[in-house]
Write a structure and sequence with these properties.
Layout: E1 5-12, E2 17-20, E3 23-24, H1 29-39, E4 43-47, H2 48-53, E5 63-67, E6 78-80, H3 83-92, E7 98-100, H4 104-110, E8 116-122, E9 132-133, E10 142-147, E11 159-166
């Protein structure tokens, strides 16, 4: 675990679905606002496909790090090429909050390093069509430290925000 590495995700409650065809399943206005407020003035790490799914690149007022095996360079964003490089970056910058924000492969890589999870849990009446999923959250490793009331949008499923700390 690295104290300043956090994970932030919006996923469905039952199936942990996070996206399809390179896009989010839902564009929930209040959740997008929550993501912005939580990550503002901090560092975000995402894969190349997730980076290109952002409506504005780089995301403003955040240090954007793209985790990629490729050698491409991106305007106003940094590239790192491995989980180990991100971990070393976090250890070298202990005062920076570093948010892992997708996609599914990036989430899988960092679950063992994250100290905190920011989860938006979206209710689903039945499984939604998806091709990317968030890893299982092991209740033996994580303790829920906060949970919001449900937000009930007009034309989308209800959802709530949860925060988990890693058990020491």
């Amino acid at each position: 675990m690295i104290d300043n590495i956090y994970v932030i995700v919006a996923m469905t409650k039952k199936t942990r679905a996070i996206g399809i065809d390179g896009d989010m399943l839902y564009h929930l206005k209040e959740d997008l606002k929550y993501f912005k407020e939580t990550t503002l003035n901090h560092t975000i790490v995402c894969g190349r496909k997730t980076y290109f799914s952002f409506p504005k690149r780089p995301l403003p007022n955040r240090k954007n790090i793209i985790l990629t095996r490729g050698n491409d360079h991106y305007d106003q964003a940094f590239t790192l090429h491995s989980k180990d490089q991100v971990a070393q970056y976090a250890l070298n910058h202990p005062d920076e909050k570093i948010f892992i924000c997708g996609g599914d492969n990036v989430y899988k890589q960092f679950m063992d390093l994250a100290s905190k999870l920011y989860i938006t849990e979206i209710d689903e009446d039945s499984p939604v069509e998806a091709d990317s999923f968030f890893p299982q959250i092991d209740p033996n490793l994580w303790t829920k430290v906060s949970e919001s009331d449900y937000i009930i949008p007009e034309k989308a499923p209800r959802y709530k925000s949860l925060v988990y700390d890693r058990n020491l």
